[in-house]
Amino acid sequence: MLRLLTIEFHKLKHNTASKVLSIIYFGLLTSITLIAAIKFDIGPIKFHLAEMGIFNFPYIWHFNTYMAAILKFFLLLVIVSMMSNEYSYKTLKQNLIDGLSKKEFILSKFYAVIAFALISTIFVFVVSLILGLIYSDYNEFAIITSDLDYILAFFVKLVGFFSFGLFLGILVKRSAFAIGAMFVWYFIEAISKLICYWQFNENPTNAPKTDTILQFFPLESLSNLIKEPFSRLGAVKSVANQIGETFTKSYTVDFSTIFIVCIWTFIFIYLSFALLKKRDL
Q1: pLDDT attached to residue 44
Q2: Which domain holds residue 26?
């Protein structure tokens, strides 16, 4: 494993675009801390995000992982360019000539995916912990360590998403086309969702069927791992209660969703290997 990872990071070390994208990605992750500095007064209205509770434990695990997951597209570019460069610079063929098997080649890419996801997860964990210790109103150990399943969900989400990108990179061989294919699949799922809502939601008794079907779509399952955190915020709930609205949404990490994403991850990696094995390089 270490040998294969060393090969991958050696390639990335000499890829300027990948280094720039990685720096931008982690720079943006760090910028989450700047949210705490957002503060302005308009007459009697005082607005300070840090005082609204977004950095309170355990809510911060939910909020920061959700916000950080939005930035995953920057590392997706690194993953797909990493794969397209193998074809552009003929390094894939050279690796195979040098004795690397196709299975080892795919594993090296998958290990790189796991490494990127793990580094990102540790980074978000540390940033969230520091922000929470500074701004949270609750610093009891039991509260700090609750809801840490969002960190696990974040890691699984990145691994699944990057594995999808890796498969598309092998499938179409070009970075731009791979990203385009990702958006095409997004629209396919969006249209499928509209069809499902149209077919099942005409009859209220069939409404649960929509979510049951959609949860098995790859991008939808990734989205379901960490649900939006904004309506969970106390200030938002207070406003909603004043206008007669209530939120009955569940925000917990569903481990059945984690299982679905893990299955999709396996499928993407297996298809990547099957595709590479079938191709005449």
Answers
A1: 60
A2: 2-278
